[in-house]
């Protein structure tokens, strides 16, 4: 039983890392539409918007998908839905990879 749980846990963690496999360079190109609110480098100057630079890649991907699917409704969700509605799964993965990479030294 313990081996089965360990195997299932490992498979689940592996699927998260595969999901988060975006292209950083492509994400940088796609991020231009995000810059007006989140800053050119993912760091904002307006306190009502969150910094994206250095955020966890899986978190960013999940957040963008939640906006796209209407699962996030608070704060600036109405604005975000307009931006993310047309993003493909690959676009979301690329953006998440790019912003996550900005926290790496």
Automatic annotation (TrEMBL):
Cytochrome c domain sequence ranges: 22-103
Signal sequence range: 1-20
Superkingdom, taxonomy of origin: Bacteria
GO molecular function (one): heme binding
Keywords: Electron transport, Heme, Iron, Metal-binding, Signal, Transport
Cross-referenced InterPro entries: Cyt_c-like_dom, Cyt_c-like_dom_sf, Cyt_C_IC, Cytochrome_c_Oxidase_Subunit
SUPFAM superfamilies, alphabetized: Cytochrome c
Alphabetical list of PANTHER family matching this protein: CBB3-TYPE CYTOCHROME C OXIDASE SUBUNIT FIXP (PTHR33751), CYTOCHROME C4 (PTHR33751:SF9)
Protein name: Cytochrome c
């Amino acid at each position: 039983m313990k081996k089965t749980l360990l195997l299932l846990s490992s498979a689940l963690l592996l699927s998260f890392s595969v999901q988060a496999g975006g292209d950083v360079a492509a994400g940088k190109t796609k991020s231009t539409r995000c810059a007006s609110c989140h800053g050119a480098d993912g760091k904002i100057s307006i306190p009502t918007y969150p910094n994206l630079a250095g955020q966890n890649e899986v978190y960013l991907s999940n957040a963008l998908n939640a906006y796209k699917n209407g699962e996030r409704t608070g704060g600036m969700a109405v604005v975000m839905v307009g931006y993310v509605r047309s993003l493909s799964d690959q676009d979301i993965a690329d953006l998440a990879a790019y912003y996550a990479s900005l926290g790496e030294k």
